[in-house]
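Thread: "does anyone have the structure for this chain?"

Original post by V.I.:
We have the sequence but no experimental structure in hand. Need at least a predicted one for the grant figures.
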Amino acid sequence: MKVEQFVMAYQVEQDRLRALLPDGFESLRPVLRMNAEIQNEQRAYLELNTAAASQGKRGWLNIANWNSETHDLTYERNGKSLTFTAPFLTITYTAVGVAGNCPAEQDNDGCFFLSQVPHLRPPEHVTVNKEFCDCEFAWSFHDHDAHGVSMGKTLPAFFSPQEKDYEKQPLSAENAAAIPCQQVLGSYVVKFERA
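Reply from O.Q.:
Generated one for you, tokens below.
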């Protein structure tokens, strides 16, 4: 399968993330990450994750995922920009022509997907360089949902100790989207063949 994968991460208040995590999961960094894909130049796929640990493994916890076959998810190209649109989100990636790697991928045992028994999908080992992007996004489940614009560079996000105790909420894209974006940490696009 030919995959064109767009990745963006943004920083949020870590204590609010902690209030969303199910039992058995620990928040690693104050980050929400969106992966958007075009698969075989026709199918769109989008997932929302957060950095988490469970069962001695560190990686990403899948909050939600959508695809164009079962959801109203589309994409449109405009020069170097590509925009994914859904009723609840608009996100635009604009390639900037600078290649490199993503340091966050060095601490990744995979992605946890919740079901009756959570399972860990191993990470993909992509050997081609990524092309960095500028990015702009806005969630639209409700007024005042998170939105942000990148600043043209990749920024780190560090673990922050708990300071506030928020009321527990279900893990959902809608609840995650309500957490304000503090800053866009970076984004990139990578093209590869998935087995």
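V.I.: this helps a lot. The longest strand covers residues 26-39.
O.Q.: and The mean pLDDT is 93.
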